[in-house]
Amino acid sequence: MENRNKEQLNLMHSGKGFIAALDQSGGSTPKALSQYGVEENQYSNDEEMYTLVHEMRSRIIKSPAFDSQYILGAILFENTMDRKIDGQWTAEYLWEKKHIVPFLKVDKGLADLANGVQLMKPISNLDELLDRAVDRKIFGTKMRSVIKEANPTGIQEVVKQQFEVGLQIFKKGLVPIIEPEVDIYISDKEKSEQILKDEIKKQLDLLDKDVKVMLKLSIPTVKNFYSDLMSDPHVVRVVALSGGYSREEANQKLAENHGLIASFSRALSEGLSAGQSDAEFNSQLGNSIKEIYEASIQ
Known about the structure:
11 strands; alpha/beta
C-alpha cells in the first residue's frame, strides 16, 4: 500500500471529523442546483448543468470553511472526479491542497422495489470506472441501496449485493463504503435495522482478514446500536447519512450515537445559495460544518 493510502486509511479510521457527501448525481442534480438558487431555465443541457454544479462544488471545496480540521473525507460524483479545480483533478486538489480524503460514488441508481428493498442497478462499466478512480487518486467508493421494510429476504439480498460489489472494489485497491440505507420514515425501522445488522455481521465474518470496508447507515432508532460493528477489525469507520432529517435533527440524533460520524449531503449544503457573497457563503458553510463536526465527535 502506498504511503498516501496508508495515511488516508489512518485518517479515516481514527481522525476526528466527518465526511462531506458532494455526490448528488444525474437525477438529483437539478434539485441540488435549485436548492442552491440555480433554476432549470438557467441551463439548456446536461453539459451546462454539470458545469454549474461543478462551480457550486468547487466553491464549497475551495471555501476556507471546508477545512481538514473538521472534514476527513469528501464523496464525489463521477462527473466531478473527471473535472478540475484550479487546474488539478478534483480528487488530487482535495488531498494535496486540503488534506481531505477523496471518495467516489460508483452506483448507477436503484432498481425497482422488490421484497421491500431497492437493490442497486447493475454497474455496467464498474471495472473501467475503478481503474480511472485509481488513476485519479481516489481512496474509496460509495454505493447505495435502500431498505423500505423489515423483509428478511430483501435485506439479505441488499447486503449480499453490497458486499459482492464491495469486494470487487477492494481488489482494485480502493476502500468501499457499503451503504444499505434504511428509509427513516418506515414504521418497522427498528426491526429492519436488527435484520440489517445481523446480515452485515454475517458478511463481515466471511471476509479475508486483510479486507477493509466502511459502512454508511441511517442513524439507528436504538442509540449506539452499531457500536459492535465499529469494533469489527474489517470496519474502518461507520458513518451516518442524514436520510431526509433537517440538519438540526440529524445532528441531534447523531450526537446521541457515540463514535458514529456524519456523511451528510443535503444537510451540509442547506442554506447555501449562488446569490450569496463569498463572505456570506463561507460563513453559512462554516456554521454548518462546525455543527455537523460537533455532533460527529460526541
